[in-house]
Design brief:
301 residues; Immunoglobulin-like
Length: 301
């Protein structure tokens, strides 16, 4: 599975509700209580963040629910937001989120952010050479790829033996694969197979069959104008390969690097043709597993 296939760490239970809104000094405020399932028992010390509605970016510091499960975010600009838990992997509950609205002219009962017992997925990443693939981020996504509002939590990484565990998942059906970012030490990126759909059950860990991981390759070089030989600074380039196309923008010196490329034959070209000018593309460049290929100086137009 491509790294970009998975974009979320855990399923987030979406609760349709409107938060309590109070007029606070400096703006509106969102208040509420974190409770457990049907019992309604308050949860003390639960980590909660307020996120922007459009990009799901955190706003300010996280809050910890009080001994009675209560929390408040004040000084807000009226509008729509998302409340999301930021529970640690050791928590038995699934991550949860809900949409809220902040308006200084509206008042309602405090919101109840409900936590349910969660489950886990566990498996092994295996390299193309047959050994363990370590240090790679692993994500679990709901079957069907439905977007879930919530914060992007730090994904777990596979251990030295290739083992991984994804926690805090709401019960349901998921697929697993490596994440969008491979982090320091994982130089160019990787491609992994997508797991078959597996069911997560509350309070249990579901085993995922081993996932084979292949290291991607990369191309670097300098783009110059076909006619003048001058660097093509800040000009959109494309790498076109096995059924895919990736854009990149060279530096002021024309140097570019394309990463996370599937092994195979690729060509480099400008993104857009210029009227009245013949378009020139590079000769095919062979990308190999886990290697950085130098394309040298490429004359493009």
């Amino acid at each position: 599975m491509r790294r970009t296939l998975m974009s979320l760490v855990a399923a987030m239970a979406i609760i349709a509700a409107t938060a309590s809104v109070a007029t606070a000094s400096g703006g509106a405020a969102v208040t509420g209580t974190v409770v457990v399932g049907a019992s309604g028992a308050p949860v003390a010390g639960a980590c909660i963040r307020l996120l922007t509605s459009s990009t799901r970016s955190p706003l300010g510091a996280a809050r910890q629910s009080s001994s009675t499960g209560e929390f408040q975010f004040g000084g807000l600009v009226p509008g729509s937001y998302v409340l999301a838990t930021c529970l640690p992997p050791t928590s038995p509950y699934a991550q949860a989120s809900m949409r809220v609205s902040a308006s200084p002219t509206t008042s309602s009962a405090p919101v109840r952010l409900t936590l349910e017992l969660g489950g886990s997925l566990s498996g092994t990443l295996v390299s193309s050479a047959g050994g363990p693939a370590r240090g790679l981020e692993v994500l679990a996504s709901p079957r069907g790829g439905a977007a879930q509002p919530g914060e992007m939590f730090t994904p777990p990484r596979s251990l030295a033996n290739g083992r991984y565990t994804v926690t805090n998942l709401a019960p349901g059906v998921y697929v697993a694969g490596i994440g969008d970012e491979t982090g320091p030490g994982d130089r160019w990126g990787y491609t992994s197979a997508q797991s078959a759909p597996v069911r997560v059950v509350a309070g249990a860990t579901t085993a995922v069959p081993p996932l084979r991981v292949t290291a991607d390759g990369a191309i670097t070089g300098v783009a110059v104008d076909f006619s003048t030989g001058r660097p093509l600074a800040h000009t959109c380039l494309q790498a076109k390969g096995p059924g895919m196309s990736y854009p990149a923008t060279p530096s002021a010196t024309g140097r570019f690097t394309f990463t996370a490329l599937v092994p195979g034959r690729w060509v480099i070209a400008t993104c857009f043709a210029t009227a009245g000018v013949a378009r020139h593309v590079s000769e095919p460049i062979v990308v190999r597993t886990g290697a950085l290929t130098s394309a040298g100086s490429l004359r493009l137009s």
